[in-house]
Amino acid sequence: RLRMNKTNYFKLGIRIDNIKKSLLPYTILTVILSLGLIASLRLFSQSMMDVYHTFYPLFWISIPLSILQEIVFRGFGMYQLKKLFKKPIAVILLNSILFSLFHMFIPEQLLFVPLSFLAGLAFATVYYYYPILFLVSLAHVVINLLPVFYWGLIG
Q: What is the pTM of this model?
């Protein structure tokens, strides 16, 4: 049972004390993931466009869903994994695997599961060393909304 006190809020990433030193890593994370997603959108355009059109009516739900995923996977998930494993690589890899398995409901799993694993790996790595739930959630929201703006600009 998790009793919430100031220490536990910090362990869950609900904090702003390290926001200045965390802004650069999260900005780099968001830019790299955005460039990778744009490359994927161009490379797998038709498959990703099909998925986008399938989910477009529900796409704005991705904002709260992105935040909820970060609370579950980075906040609570990494908190629990850190209690079970001492090595950062184990925590980061297991967190990334769980994150990618969560995305198996999306059509085109052969495409989206590996992409979500890579994104999860990036989110988990940065979050492990710079645990700010607000910033990782913001990065996730940006990445999930990027296809809306990308395809909105190209047609």
A: 0.85
